[in-house]
Write a structure and sequence with these properties.
Sodium/bile acid cotransporter 7; 11 helices; membrane; Na+/H+ antiporter like fold; transmembrane; about 80% helix; transmembrane helix; mainly alpha; Na+/solute_symporter_sf
Amino acid sequence: MLFPLLGWGLKPLLSPLVTPELYMGVLYLCALPATVQSSIAFVSLARGNVPAAVCSASASGLIGVFLTPALVGLLLDAHNTGNGLSTLDAIAKIFLQLLVPFIAGQIMRRWISTWIDAHKAKLKFVDQGSILLVVYTAFSAAIIEGLWPSVPLSALAGLVVVCSVILTLALVLTRYTARRLGFGKEDEIAVVFCGSKKSLATGVPMAKVLFAGGSIGAILLPIMLFHQIQLMVCAVLAQRYTRLNDGTNLNKNSAKSAADTR
């Protein structure tokens, strides 16, 4: 619930920096679930609690199928999803597109998991390629619809500021909350990376359902930009956590060696 509160609470301060359509996209960004693959990758790189990251990011994706359409309706002050669909209809369509394939994959795992593991390197291109195609087609459609002529350069610069402010607050608040709750360093890393990310791969197909019949270019631009910013910032942050962990382990080993020598 942190992101929706940030997007809604900061609207009087941040919305003048962008166009109204772009801030609708910012609110949609705030309602999306966390990304799964990159969250787990960064937690692993930072030497955090990977099993917790897997559970957290996966749960966010599953809950988002049901919660995101409702949050979009609330944040955009609408009684439906903006295209004649009720919230329940939107949930049903998103469930069919995102959750049914996931459930089917889990059911089939007992029969295909050995073959999948044996061809993991090749299938990686199918996995990543499908996400690339989804994003590419959505962005291409936005360009054809005339996205750039409708977005002033000042609004684009303002959008960078808006995304950066929201991401910074999310990172600071998740880190502060994890420490206040007494979590260890590995759990803190999982909280920070899973609690501050947003899924582009989930956001694009959801937007096609929630905003079908209208131009979704301005809706998708904030999540596309936020996705790139979060990758760059979290890569630096993960390296910093790694150096801190290496330094801590080095100090512990040095202290142990000194104690053994004595």
